Amino acid sequence: MSALVNLQFFLILLLAWAPEAFSQIPSWDGQNDLGFQAYEKGNYLEAEKYFLVGIGQAEQFGDSDPRLITALNNLAAIYTREGKFAAAESLYQRTLSTKIAGSGGMDVGVALLEGNLG
Predict the structure, then answer these.
(1) Residues contacting residue 45 through CB under 8 Å, at least 6 positions apart
(2) Contact 58, 70 (CB under 8 A)
(3) CA spacing 20 to 30 A to 96: which of 42, 67, 68, 108?
(4) Contacts of 43 (CB under 8 A, 6+ apart)
């Protein structure tokens, strides 16, 4: 499980950008940070809420944007912790296919995401 946690937060560190359109609401980074804080406290329902909003925001950046991969992976980690394994697997599959499509094939990120699927 530690590899999963390390991966999801490795991806978080790669990202730092907030579009002007979200100036009135917490940025994607803000949603992600709040979700991470809730996750660290074991408040998975609150973390889930923030990560869902983050996914909605990240989807507006495009399918190949790394923020979408991070947001999907973070929510999948929450679902895993909550025992929602089918939902987690579905998100991990989407995360992996999005990463492969964006990177054009195998790289370290793809290998790490494949590890989440077991």
Answers:
(1) none
(2) yes
(3) 42
(4) none
Write the DSSP symbol of residue 20.
G
**Residue recorded with tokens 């406290």:** 41
pLDDT tens per residue across span 58-84 = 999 888 788 998 999 999 999 999 999
Residue 104 in contact with residue 83, Cβ under 8 Å? no
Closest by alpha carbon to 71, among 95, 90, 93? Answer: 95
pTM assigned to the model = 0.71
Place of tokens 């560190």: 13
The tokens for 23 are 């100036």
On average, the pLDDT of the chain sits at 79
Tell which residue, 30, 58, 38, 44, has the closest CA to residue 88. Answer: 44
